[in-house]
Write a structure and sequence with these properties.
- This protein is α+β, with helices and mostly antiparallel strands.
- The chain has helices at about 10-20, 60-75, 105-115, 145-150, and strands at about 50-55, 80-85, 125, 155-165, 170-180, 185-195, 200-205, 215-220, 220-225, 235, 245-250, 265-270, 275-280.
- Helix 1 runs parallel beside helix 2 (about 60-75).
Length: about 290
């Protein structure tokens, strides 16, 4: 079993100190609770997508999730986490009720298997799908450094996410995109559903929860699927500053077992060729 055990504690202590400061300087942002209109949360710097590739059979994945959560909390409304359950460590175990959950998704499986990302072990992560220290994906000890490196990136577009959820379990996500500067290349938009507050078994060997398994583990930011395909759809080719568009996507929750009040929509634009994430926005809870 391949696992990564470094969790970047010194770097996380820096983040904790940042959180304790009364004054936050640019390129950071004004904190506000997320809701169904993310317009006000957009900043003057590029927001950051942190992907945590994980699985309930991975003994080091619980502490990795803690690293991801601490980073997201330190950079509130600036960093957004997707927990991607994929690979052999994410498979359900037949006949074992503790590990019966199947949190995999088609999009997650496609991302996990994409050779350029090189997700060859769990836990492993990506930050804006950009190279850091020569690698697209890397262990938890480098997540904080990669995030800090990306905080200075300029914002090239504004993204907004608004949700409507009907009594017949239909989710409608309205996505707005406006480019603030020109961009050379093809741009895709990917819109995904995440779910929090899912409970199940999680293997674990790392302190402070140094037990062989956590019987009621709280899974957060779980990728449930994409609303417009694993790689999204192309929305622009060499867009000029001022180019704008609105897109609408729907998803039927009927029979899926997802709890709307624990779900959210996350949208990100990417370079179609390199897959680099150019900006990301997330809604609040979907529920009625």
């Amino acid at each position: 079993m391949k696992t990564l055990i470094k969790i970047g504690f010194p770097a996380l202590m820096i983040l904790v100190m940042m959180m304790a400061c009364d004054k936050v300087e640019a390129p950071y942002y004004t904190s506000r609770p997320l809701n169904n209109d993310t317009t006000g949360a957009d900043t003057n710097r590029r927001t950051i997508l942190l992907e945590d590739y994980t699985g309930h059979l991975c003994t080091n994945c619980a502490p990795a999730a803690t690293v991801a959560r601490n980073i997201q909390e330190a950079f509130e409304n600036k960093v957004f986490v997707i927990a991607v359950h994929a690979g052999s460590f994410a498979r359900p175990v037949p006949g074992n009720a503790l590990y019966s959950l199947d949190l995999r998704s088609e999009a997650g499986n496609d991302w996990y298997g994409y050779s350029t990302f090189n997700i060859d072990q769990n836990p492993k992560g990506m930050v804006n799908r950009r190279s850091y220290n020569g690698n697209i994906s890397f262990g938890t000890s480098e997540w904080t450094g990669a995030v800090l490196a990306d905080t200075a990136l300029p914002k090239i577009a504004i993204l907004t996410v608004k949700n409507e959820f009907s009594a017949d379990s239909l989710l409608t996500a309205k996505i707005g995109v406006k480019f603030l500067s020109s961009y050379s290349g093809n741009v895709t938009l990917t819109v995904c559903i995440l779910e929090d507050e899912i409970y199940g078994g999680q293997k674990n060997i790392i302190p402070p929860d140094s037990t062989p398994e956590i019987k009621r583990y709280r899974f957060m930011h779980v990728l449930r699927g994409s609303m417009n395909g694993s790689w999204g759809e192309q929305i622009a080719s060499n867009p000029a500053a001022g180019f704008a568009l609105n897109k609408v996507y729907t998803a039927d929750f009927e029979g899926k077992g997802w709890v709307p009040g624990h779900c959210s929509v996350i949208a990100f634009i990417s370079d179609a060729e390199t897959r680099e994430v150019l900006h990301v926005a997330k809604s609040g809870e979907i529920g009625l």
